[in-house]
Amino acid sequence: MQRVQVMTAAELQKDGSFIKQIHAVYASIESARAEMQRIADTFNSEDGLYKDWRAETPIGQVDALSLERLEGNHYQCQTFYKIRPYNVIAE
């Protein structure tokens, strides 16, 4: 049995619901966290590419990330990433 880290992404749909899918699988928690940090850095950069967006880590959730778009005077979550351990059993 091997333990891997699965990053899921829940994406906001037009009807207000979220559809969750596997974004990526990593061999280590460090690799998964590095990818999550890369995503956050991209959305929080000062280059203006995502000027109406922000990436926020919910309080108390180290392995989660919310990508939020400015709508009026508040931010709305568009994609929510979560890292979870998963045991793989080889046959």
Task: Write up this protein.
With 91 residues, the chain is an alpha+beta fold. The protein has one domain. 16% of the residues lie in helices and 52% in strands. It is built from one helix and five strands, in the order ββαβββ. It has a five-stranded antiparallel β-sheet with strand order 2-1-5-4-3, covered by helices on one side. The longest helix is centred in the middle third of the chain and has 15 residues. The N and C termini lie close together (10 Å). The model has no long low-confidence stretch (mean pLDDT 93).
What is this structure's SSE topology?
Elements: E1 2-12, E2 18-26, H1 29-43, E3 53-56, E4 64-71, E5 74-88
Antiparallel strand pairs: 1-2, 1-5, 3-4, 4-5
Offer a few descriptive terms:
1 helix; 5-stranded antiparallel beta sheet; alpha+beta; 91 residues; globular; 16% helix; single chain
Task: Give a concise summary.
The protein has 91 residues and is an alpha+beta fold. It is built from one helix and five strands. It has one helix at residues 29-43, and strands spanning 2-12, 18-26, 53-56, 64-71, 74-88.
